[in-house]
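Record type: monomer structure entry
Structure origin: computed from sequence
Chain ID: A
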Amino acid sequence: MLSDNHRDEEEWGLPFATELDEEIEAQLDNLVGKTVVSLSLWTEPIITALSEELPPEMLEDLGDVVDIDFYFEDHHLLELYSARIYPDENAPPLEGLQRIAETLTRHVERGLRLAEIAEEAETGVPIFIFTPLHDDQELLVVADGWIVDTWDTLPEEEELD
């Protein structure tokens, strides 16, 4: 599900984690094994709003990144910022918002579970390893920032209001 960014400019103060520590690792570990029940994929990643403040070489290295909200069972929410989606560990990241949206939506509709959280060796950022319930192929998501939270209403339910 694609969502417009309705975030206010003042909200872009990087309220998310960018490094792992014990507390954050514990929060993330609580999500392992949970099934994704819905998702929101933002049409404009946060990095776009920050682009004037970042060095150009940093933006070039990012490629196609997206901001994603994964809604898990038991009302857990994982917000990922500047995320890259890899269909497997040997493939390049998916490109194009539409292709990324179609891939993620198809997996969520068929069943998707967070199987593991690994750590990227060079940067130390987490790699979120999702396993589709309909096959054995893993889906890897690497993000530069994240928030673990809870949700009250699924995106589909908000549209009905």
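Annotation 1: The CA atoms of residues 88 and 106 lie 16 Å apart.
Annotation 2: The helical segments are 22-29, 46-50, 56-62, 97-110, 155-160.
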